[in-house]
Amino acid sequence: MTLPDPHSEDVRQQLIDFISADAVFHGDFTLTSGKKATYYVDLRKVSLDHRVAPLIGQVMIDLISDLPDIAAVGGLTMGADPIASAILHQGAARGLAYDAFVVRKEPKDHGRGKQVEGPDLAGKRVVVLEDTSTTGGSPLKAIEALRKVGAEVVAVAVVVDRATGAREVIEAAGVQYLAAIDLDDLGLAG
């Protein structure tokens, strides 16, 4: 078990501030799910930013730190990729050994035909990541692919939970759901 970062609440607030300022857009949007929304959280605007990626890594490590024996983190490409990379790098800086993996939307039709890229995950405990959650479809697709390669999916961890049903879908599939930031944190609730 890792010791909590003494500045973790400061780091989390810095992350919330960056997301609020740079990744929340107001207007009329159609989400991947087809649902309509008056705001859109585009986490790639910050997850690929050199100032913010380390904060995401730190906050997400704090979120999953109580889960024992996690070998690797990752999820469905592309939203999960920078989150996994941030955890991998911030974990290494803390002396933690989190590897990262990428789940393709479909298996490759050439080469080794893999859908899950990265270390061998057979028999390993993993956490599926997502930047923002809406329906839970992306994590479910990743969970299915990971189980096919023999990984034990311990939890789904998201940076921003949109409170649009993903938690319920993931938990109904028998997987723990963790979220670092919610709509209240971003001033978007109700």
From TrEMBL:
It catalyses: orotidine 5'-phosphate + diphosphate = orotate + 5-phospho-alpha-D-ribose 1-diphosphate. Its EC number is 2.4.2.10. SUPFAM superfamilies: PRTase-like. Its cofactor is Mg(2+). Pathway: Pyrimidine metabolism; UMP biosynthesis via de novo pathway; UMP from orotate: step 1/2. One of its GO terms (molecular function) is glycosyltransferase activity. Transmembrane segments: none annotated. The keyword Translocase does not apply. Orotate binds at residues 134, 162. It comes from the Bacteria. HAMAP family: PyrE (MF_01208). Homodimer. This is Orotate phosphoribosyltransferase. The lineage of its organism: Bacteria, Bacillati, Actinomycetota, Actinomycetes, Micrococcales. The gene is pyrE.
